[in-house]
């Protein structure tokens, strides 16, 4: 019986050892599976994060495109409004330049009418001349104030000829104004034509 007890005891020890080994193996397998599961979860989170990052990047790209498009549109609006203003100015300038010969004719007519004895005719032409000049002045056209004895400036005057100066004071200065100059706003639309003394 004692043999039997020893054998049973040994078998029980073997069974216990076997159970313990199996338990250790099961624990190890569970631990490995748990680690794999955690790694898989992390991988899925990384994939989810990378998807979120991708979407954020796409949103940033679209936002950048939108901002560039908006900036281009603002530049386009600014450029077209500037062109429109310049178009109005140049359209006005062309009309004003077309009126300059009429003003010159009025000046010549007034000189000739003053020679006649018809004061009523002179008065009538002067009224029309003044009205025309005031209307053009209200639109920005002003005559350049150039007279005999002014210093010649090549940036402001157009010399058509040079004659010997009648006196020493007129040497290098304007001797005569052949045609008046005009400005439209700040811009000179016709330079005065002058004769200079040498």
Outline the secondary-structure elements.
Layout: H1 2-115, H2 119-138, E1 141-143, E2 158-163, E3 174-179, E4 182-184, E5 187-190, E6 193-197
Parallel strand pairs: 2-6
Antiparallel strand pairs: 1-4, 3-6, 4-5
Helix pairs in contact: 1-2
Give Rg in angstroms: 51 Å
Under CATH, the topology of the domain at 141-198 can be stated as Nucleotide Exchange Factor Grpe, Chain A, domain 2
Give the number of helices. Answer: 2
Q: The biggest beta sheet, please?
A: 3 strands, antiparallel
What is the percent of helical residues? Answer: 55-70%
By CATH, the superfamily of the domain at 141-198 comes out as: Head domain of nucleotide exchange factor GrpE
Low-confidence stretches: none
Any idea of the CATH class of the domain at 141-198?
Mainly Beta
Overall pLDDT level: 83
Protein name: Protein GrpE
Region (Disordered): 1-55
Pfam families: GrpE (PF01025)
Biased composition (Basic and acidic residues): 1-21, 32-55
Provide a short characterization of the protein structure.
By secondary structure, the protein is an alpha+beta fold.
Q: How is this structure best described in words?
A:
With 198 residues, the chain is an alpha+beta fold. The chain has a domain at 141-198: Head domain of nucleotide exchange factor GrpE (Nucleotide Exchange Factor Grpe, Chain A, domain 2). It contains two helices and six strands. It has helices at residues 2-115, 119-138, and strands spanning 141-143, 158-163, 174-179, 182-184, 187-190, 193-197. The strands form two sheets. It has a three-stranded antiparallel sheet with strand order 1-4-5. It has a three-stranded mixed sheet with strand order 2-6-3, with no helix packed on it. The model has no long low-confidence stretch (mean pLDDT 83). Homodimer. Keywords: Chaperone, Cytoplasm, Stress response. This is Protein GrpE. Residues 1-21, 32-55 have a biased composition (Basic and acidic residues). Pfam families: GrpE.
């Amino acid at each position: 019986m004692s043999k039997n007890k020893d054998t049973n005891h040994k078998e029980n020890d073997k069974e216990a050892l076997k159970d313990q080994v199996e338990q250790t193996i099961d624990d190890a397998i569970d631990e490995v599976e748990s680690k794999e599961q955690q790694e898989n979860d992390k991988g899925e989170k990384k994939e989810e994060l990378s998807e979120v990052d991708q979407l954020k990047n796409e949103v940033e790209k679209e936002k950048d495109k939108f901002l560039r498009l908006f900036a281009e549109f603002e530049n386009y609006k600014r450029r077209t409004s500037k062109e429109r203003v310049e178009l109005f100015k140049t359209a006005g300038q062309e009309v004003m330049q077309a009126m300059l010969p009429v003003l010159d004719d009025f000046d010549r007519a007034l000189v000739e009418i003053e020679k006649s004895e018809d004061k009523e005719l002179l008065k009538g032409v002067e009224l029309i001349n003044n009205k025309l000049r005031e209307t053009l002045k209200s639109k920005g056209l002003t005559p350049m104030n150039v007279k005999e004895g002014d210093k010649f400036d090549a940036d402001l005057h157009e010399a058509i000829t040079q004659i010997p100066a009648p006196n020493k004071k007129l040497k290098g200065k304007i001797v005569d104004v052949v045609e008046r100059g005009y400005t439209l706003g700040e811009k000179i639309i016709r330079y005065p034509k002058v004769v200079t003394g040498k």
